[in-house]
Every structure is written in structure tokens, then in C-alpha cells.
Design brief:
By secondary structure, the chain is of the alpha/beta class. It has four domains: 112 residues, Methylthiotransferase, N-terminal domain (Rossmann fold), CATH 3.40.50; 142 residues, Transcription Regulator spoIIAA; 115 residues, Transcription Regulator spoIIAA (2-Layer Sandwich), CATH 3.30.750; 56 residues, Nucleic acid-binding proteins (OB fold (Dihydrolipoamide Acetyltransferase, E2P), Beta Barrel), CATH 2.40.50. The chain contains twelve helices and 17 strands. The strands form five sheets. It has a five-stranded mixed beta barrel. Helix 2 links the parallel strand 1 and strand 2. Helix 11 runs parallel beside helix 12.
């Protein structure tokens, strides 16, 4: 979501005449788009703000902005510790970046906008999408504003789940869905300029539509987007397990454009911990969901989030979690030690797990999950995968990189002109990050 918000700001600024630069010394405006989910990213922001103090002082008129969740949560602290910041804009103000930059240029500093106002109906998630949609008759023609091969499309912002450890509902506000028509128009505009895969974004995409007058659900949205000509793949993230239903599973099973991958955060593998986290499901229900997905969607990859060291977590609860993860065998996982977030219920608890114990448990979890990931990838060697080619691999001459439908990365030998093509690849070599492979032919438009 932060990447999409950054793209939105970049697009609006480009539309207003600003030009992006890779050089800090050439920049007149620097925006730090921040995250508050864990403590470490916030420490990095303050460190970077300290480094940017010299950049700011070196030339009159330079503008420094802090945007996003950390600005929403800790504006007063940022102003106190980094008084050279010119703009503080919260999570409801991204669409006003041009206005704020202009106000700062005129000498109004600091500009502070922390109201959680809903975003207007702006079909803007990248610099290219600020332009009017290309007519469908021009689809396939070269455009002056090509869209990315893969695009992020926010469909719902905010969260009302209030997990006891999570700051997101406090910094992102309540759920607010975009209309089906607005989302479809944005996706159609992307596809008209060459996008072939979209990832639908939300703090919980499965809550989509509940706040809209006609209450379309997420499965309905998937069905509508699947009718867009030229859209090859649809992905989405992230999903709350308690909102998984048969309509979602059926959409994943029946709609060819919907990829065989779901990110389904489990967070803990003990019912006692899940209850204290206010997650709203049990380990038994989670098992049922996994079984239904794997039964109905052959080849699906299931990834997850796992947390260790939640306040009060006992050794027995930790071991139960490890046993469940070993049973389910996720394809991959984001793994974290609990990070107290001021303002949440979990942060206020007196039974905090000592930091060293949290880190020790995290080390055991990472070791176990890495072993499972590699074993699952080893078992897939010899299988064929359809890979959407992103372009040259970062390392290795003559190699291309892309993603299989299950979202696993594949690197293989090939020519640069294959970028944007669907290439059948035989998986030959497993790694934690994905696979090496060999082409078996070329299919799909290029």
C-alpha cells in the first residue's frame, strides 16, 4: 500500500510539472513515505531525517516532507526531533501533495495535514495513470505514457479489525472502499497502456464493499475485473482469515485471471494467543480454510505472516505455533518478533516477553520456515510454470526474471525482447527465493 501511495504522489507531482530525479543533490523536494507497523522503520526515518538536515541547509528553498503512517501517529515527535521538516501529511492527505508543496514554496512551514479525510475519486496510482484513459480502439498502440507491466491498485483503505497489537486502524482510519466502476476504469486504463497484471490492495481486501451502498463483495469485484480484455493476471493482498468465504474460494478456482496465490496472515498458532490478539478465528478454522483452498485451487501457494513474542506468550504456546506451521507448510512467510506500538492494547500489557527471548524464538521460526520453503521448492523441480517476464535479472548476464502464477520468482536464460511475454518454463533448480529454470517455448502475446 505504501508503494501505491508513493506512486500516487509521484503521479500527481509529475502532472503538476515536477520531475523525478535519482540524485539527492538535484532534488528540490524530498518525501519520506513512512510505516508504523513496527518500531524499526520509525527509527530508520529519524536516522534519515538527521542525515537530510545537511541536505536541507545546503540550499535555500529545499522542501522536506514526511508522509504516511508515522506522520499520522507521531507528528508532534517529528516536529520536536526534526524541526527542519516542512510538510507533515497523514494517511488521508496524499492526494494534496501538490498543494502542500506549493504552500511550502511560498514560505508556509510547517504545513501539517493529519485529518483522515477520504480520498477523492482519483484514478491515480502511478505517474502514467494521471493521464486520461486511452480509448479502447487505441488498445495495443504505442503510447506516450506506458504503464508498468504490473500495477498496484488500491481498492479499500483503512481497517476496523483492531487487532490488539496493530496500529493500522489508528493511523489509517476506518474502511473506505472505492466503487467497482472506479476501480474497473483504472484497471482498464492501465491495461490500455500495456499493464498485464494488477495487484488489488487493501489492509483487508476481503472487507471490500461493505461500506458501499450496494455492498458488492470482493468476489464480485474479481469477476468484474476478469472481464477486462487484455488483463492477464489478478493478484490481491492482504486477506484477513476470518473473512475468507466460499465465494472467494470459488472466484479463485473459476476465474482464469485470478492467480493461484493468497497471502493469509495467521500471526499465531495457538488459540489462546489468537484470542488475545483479537484475530477472530481459531486454528481449527484456519486449517479448514487452508484445506478448502488447496482442494479447490490446485497448485495454490499460501504465504503468511507469523509473529513471535506476543505479550504473555509461553513456551508451550510458541511450541504449539511451530507445530501448526510445520503441519500447514506455508510456501513462504514474513516473520517478526512482536514490536510494541504505543496506543495499542498489547503495548500496554505488563507481561512483555523479554527482547532476547523474542529474538531467540524468531530465529527458531525462521530456521524452520526456510527449511519448509526450500523443501516445497525442491518438490516442484521438473514442473512447468507460466512466467510473466519482468525483464533482465539483476544478476547474471543473459538471464531474465519473472513471476509464476503462484507468485514465485523464476530466473531463466532468454533475450530482452521477451519482457512482457508469458513464457513456459521448466523449473530446474530450487532456492529460497524461487527457482532457476529453462524455457520450453513461448506463449502469449509479447
Amino acid at each position: 500500500m505504501n508503494e501505491a501511495d508513493s506512486d500516487l504522489m509521484a503521479g500527481l507531482l509529475a502532472h503538476a510539472g515536477w520531475q523525478a530525479t535519482e540524485s539527492l543533490e538535484d532534488a528540490d523536494l524530498v518525501i519520506l513515505n513512512t510505516c508504523s507497523v513496527r518500531e524499526r522503520p520509525e527509527h530508520k526515518v529519524f536516522s534519515l531525517l538527521g542525515e537530510l538536515r545537511e541536505w536541507k541547509a545546503a540550499s535555500a528553498g529545499r522542501i522536506l516532507a514526511v508522509a504516511g503512517c508515522m506522520a499520522q501517529r507521531a507528528a508532534a515527535d517529528i516536529i520536536r526531533r526534526a524541526p527542519h521538516v516542512d510538510i507533515l501529511m497523514g494517511t488521508g492527505a496524499f492526494h494534496r501533495i501538490e498543494e502542500f508543496a506549493s504552500r511550502a514554496q511560498r514560505g508556509e512551514r510547517p504545513v501539517v495535514a493529519l485529518e483522515m479525510e477520504p480520498h477523492p475519486a482519483l484514478p491515480v496510482t502511478s505517474p502514467s495513470s494521471v493521464l486520461p484513459p486511452a480509448p479502447r480502439a487505441e488498445r495495443g498502440r504505442e503510447s506516450d505514457a506506458p504503464a508498468p507491466l504490473r500495477a498496484f491498485v488500491p481498492i479499500i483503505r483503512g481497517c476496523t479489525n483492531f487487532c490488539s497489537y496493530c496500529i493500522v486502524p489508528y493511523v489509517r482510519g476506518p474502511e473506505a472502499s472505492r466503487s467497482v466502476a472506479e476501480i474497473a476504469a483504472e484497471v482498464d486504463s492501465f491495461v490500455a497502456r500495456g499493464t498485464r497484471e494488477v495487484t488489488l490492495l487493501g489492509q483487508n481486501v476481503l472487507a471490500y464493499g461493505r461500506d458501499l451502498p450496494d455492498q458488492p463483495d470482493f468476489a464480485h469485484l474479481l469477476s468484474q475485473l476478469s472481464e477486462i480484455e487484455g488483463l492477464w493476471r489478478i493478484r490481491f493482498t492482504t486477506c484477513h482469515p476470518r473473512d475468507v468465504d466460499s465465494r472467494l474460494v470459488a472466484a479463485m478456482a473459476d476465474l482464469p485471471q485470478v492467480c493461484e496465490h493468497i497471502h493469509l496472515p495467521i500471526q499465531a498458532g495457538a488459540d489462546s494467543l489468537l484470542a488475545e490478539m483479537n484475530r477472530g478465528y481459531t486454528t481449527g478454522r484456519y486449517r479448514e480454510i487452508v484445506h478448502e483452498l488447496r482442494s479447490r485451487v490446485p497448485g495454490i501457494a499460501i504465504t503468511t505472516d507469523m509473529m513471535v513474542g506476543f505479550p504473555g506468550e509461553t513456551e508451550e504456546e510458541f511450541e504449539r505455533s511451530l507445530a501448526l506451521y510445520q503441519e500447514i507448510r506455508f510456501d513462504a512467510a514474513f516473520m517478526f518478533a512482536f514490536s510494541p506500538r504505543p496506543g495499542t492494547k498489547a503495548a500496554a500489557r505488563a507481561d512483555q516477553v523479554p527482547r532476547q527471548l523474542r529474538l531467540a524464538r524468531l530465529g527458531l521460526l525462521i530456521e524452520m520456515q526456510n527449511r519448509i520453503t526450500l523443501q516445497k521448492n525442491q518438490a516442484a523441480v521438473g514442473e512447468d510454470a507460466e512466467v510473466l517476464v519482468d525483464g533482465p535479472a539483476h544478476r547474471g548476464q543473459g538471464l531474465l526474471a519473472g513471476r509464476a502464477r503462484n507468485n514465485k520468482q523464476v530466473i531463466f536464460p532468454g533475450a530482452p525482447h521477451l519482457r512482457g511475454s508469458l513464457v513456459p518454463i521448466r523449473l530446474t533448480e530450487p532456492h529460497l527465493w524461487g527457482f532457476r529454470g529453462e524455457p520450453t517455448g513461448v506463449s502469449g502475446p509479447s
